[in-house]
UniProtKB/TrEMBL annotation, chain A:
Biological source species: Gryllus longicercus
Main location: mitochondrion
Keywords, alphabetical: Mitochondrion, Ribonucleoprotein, Ribosomal protein
A GO term for molecular function: 5S rRNA binding
Protein name: Large ribosomal subunit protein uL18m
CC annotations in GO: mitochondrial inner membrane; ribonucleoprotein complex; ribosome
Lineage: Eukaryota, Metazoa, Ecdysozoa, Arthropoda, Hexapoda
UniProt cross-references to SUPFAM superfamilies, sorted A to Z: Translational machinery components (SSF53137)
From TrEMBL, chain B:
Subcellular location: Mitochondrion
Highest taxon in the source lineage: Eukaryota
Keyword field contains Ribonucleoprotein: yes
InterPro entries registered for this protein in UniProt: PEBP-like_sf, PEBP_euk
Transmembrane portions of the chain: none
Similarity comment text for this entry: Belongs to the phosphatidylethanolamine-binding protein family. Mitochondrion-specific ribosomal protein mL38 subfamily.
Cellular compartments per GO CC: mitochondrial inner membrane; mitochondrial large ribosomal subunit
Protein name: Large ribosomal subunit protein mL38
Keyword Mitochondrion: yes
Length: 183, 392
């Protein structure tokens, strides 16, 4: 079995800005390098600086997202999922699952949609994904609209923040850096 | 003469209304490959060389349709359930759903999301496992519980004390629990900081295990963003002697906490099998300043994301239709520009007196008409606080 050690493609460079204050030097922790590599592939998306594909101007449906919500129904079941722009389906909840199915009367009725939304939202929040892009054009008071409203009620946001682009010296404004704003 | 000059000026300024010959570069669309196809070809990896190896336990098998058919049939005929569903009052018990999910779909779902977070790639290289053992990990701060799921955010101040860890196990079995942070190592690129390591745990009694590295709270540096802290539970086949790895307690020297899960797993792979996985993300919060100074006894590092430099085209001798001042500022020494702005700023500022009150309607004040227009623009921009004046 060949194992190649950790790919470097997700690594993003950070350079040291400044050291804050002096401190006692009893434990030798002060020898650090000017660069730190954060290998977390979701980090830049959370910091709002990751690349988002823009697609073509008149393309429909648009593809400017990091994570997209997708709801699909077939004759038997409803499946809600989160899709990353690179392709993979990362979170999934379906009335096909025995855990959900065993409490439902029918697997595609409005009650199923509403309850699936709760489970789906819970899984998204537990996975650290709280902002999703949504391009579902649901007829009002339909089952999908019920699903979407229930998902929002459970604490998910159906809009994604815009990408932060660094300002250049010739730009007019200096927008605030998202990572410097403390919640 | 004038007419020639006029025509020249016309060609210079007007939008060209010329329709050029229609031509195609390369093959026509439909025949040529799309961008997606070309990228797929570029990123193709040979499956005989690039494959992943399952190093864990077998995932659970979902209940067979025949075994649940009776139960389902009863649900479909239930009048009470039908009434609830039709009147939109059917609420499924979320906790019970989660309990069933833990033993059926959870290993698959946790593996998928862990792959999305690059957990296996960064910790085990080309190996993966199904987390068949559900882990209940709770950080308790005050009266609040902060559970660890699979990527939720927990602040360092909430994770300052070791969490409560629960999993179902036979008291005669032995387990190893590690907590590791693969992001934000201060000196090495592909290394981790081990935050907690307990070996030879009988059942789920963590107090009776051997503490190799004591618990250290996560300490993501300012500006590095969100770092993953990953709990992995290994099942041991026999008692393992970890005494060579053991560090003095408390271990506060970060270089002694450098760890590589892959190396550790390779060393003990005959005796351990990964069974459980949970992880959270954490980012800087103000409580860490104190932690860096008093516990780690180091200067608090501050980082900033290193954006790529913007592309600036090579300078032309005769740039056309470009404002000369804005154009030339791109190629000037940035320090000279800074000096210019600073000198201008200090010239109007008395060292001991109050700074002048900002103008209420900045552009209502007239500017001498003899001043050239580009300089007027610059003055207006400075008055409004647009552009470079913000930097100095």
């Amino acid at each position: 079995m060949t194992k190649c050690l950790l790919s470097v493609k997700h690594l993003k460079t950070f350079s040291v800005l400044k050291h804050s204050t002096n401190a006692l030097v009893a434990i030798e922790n002060d020898e650090i390098k000017p660069c730190v590599y954060n290998r977390n592939p979701r980090n830049l998306e959370r910091m709002r600086i990751a690349y988002k594909p823009t697609g073509f101007h008149l393309e429909a449906p648009g593809r400017e997202f990091w994570h997209k919500i997708d709801v699909k129904q077939n004759n038997r079941y409803v499946t809600a999922s989160v899709i990353h722009w690179t392709g993979p389906k990362v979170i999934e909840a379906s009335t096909k699952e025995w855990a959900i199915k065993k409490y439902l009367y029918r697997c595609t009725d409005a009650a199923a949609y509403r309850n699936l939304a709760k489970v789906f939202a819970q899984r998204c929040l537990e996975s650290g994904i709280s902002n999703l892009y949504c391009n579902i054009d649901a007829p009002p008071e339909g089952k999908v609209a019920v699903f979407l409203s229930e998902v929002e009620k459970a604490g998910l946001s159906l809009t994604e923040p815009t990408r932060f682009l660094p300002w250049r010296p010739w730009d007019r404004h200096r927008p605030e850096k998202p990572w410097e704003v403390l919640e | 003469m004038t007419s020639v000059l006029g025509r020249l000026l016309y060609y210079e300024c007007a939008v060209p209304l010329v329709r050029y010959r229609h031509f195609l570069v390369g093959k026509p669309p439909g025949v040529a490959r799309s961008l997606e196809q070309r990228l797929a070809e570029l990123n193709y990896k040979d499956p005989t060389l690039h494959f992943k190896v399952n190093i864990g336990f077998k995932p659970p098998v979902p209940p067979k349709a025949s075994s649940v058919r009776k139960e389902l049939a009863a649900l479909r005929c239930s009048k009470e359930l039908e009434h609830l569903a039709r009147t939109q009052k059917l609420e499924i018990p979320l906790e019970a759903v989660e309990e069933t999910w833990k033993t059926t779909g959870a290993p698959f779902h946790i593996k998928t999301i862990a792959e999305h977070y690059g957990v296996f790639q960064d910790l085990f290289g080309d190996a993966y496992f199904y987390p068949v053992k559900p882990l209940d990990i709770d950080y308790k701060s005050g009266d609040l519980y902060h559970p660890v799921y699979r990527g939720n955010v927990i602040k360092p101040s909430e994770a300052s004390k070791p969490p409560e860890v629960q999993y179902k196990s036979d008291p005669n079995t032995l387990w190893t629990l590690i907590l590791t942070n693969p992001d934000g190592h201060f000196t090495e690129e592909n290394a981790e900081y081990i935050l907690w390591f307990i070996g030879n745990i009988p059942g789920c009694n963590l107090n009776k295990g051997d503490v190799i590295w004591d618990y250290l709270q996560p300490f993501p540096a300012f500006g590095t963003g969100y770092q993953r802290c990953i709990f992995i539970l290994f099942k041991q086949d026999q008692k393992i002697d970890y005494s060579s790895m053991k560090k003095d307690i408390p271990c506060l020297q970060l270089s002694k906490r450098t760890f590589k899960t892959e190396d550790f797993y390779r060393q003990h792979q005959k005796d351990i099998t990964p069974a459980g996985l949970a992880f959270f993300q954490t980012d800087w919060d103000p409580s860490l300043t104190d932690f860096y100074h008093n516990v780690l006894q180091m200067k608090e590092p501050r980082y900033e994301y290193d954006f790529p430099e913007p592309y600036i085209a090579p300078q032309e001798w005769f740039p056309r239709r470009k404002p000369f001042n804005i154009y030339q500022d791109k190629y000037r020494d940035q320090k000279a520009i800074a000096k210019e702005y600073l000198l201008k700023k200090f010239k109007n500022r008395h060292p001991f007196e109050k700074p002048p009150t900002p103008l209420r309607f900045p552009n209502a004040h007239p500017i001498d008409h003899k001043i050239p227009s580009w300089l007027k623009e610059e003055m207006k921009k400075d008055r409004l606080g647009w552009g470079r004046i913000n930097d100095y």
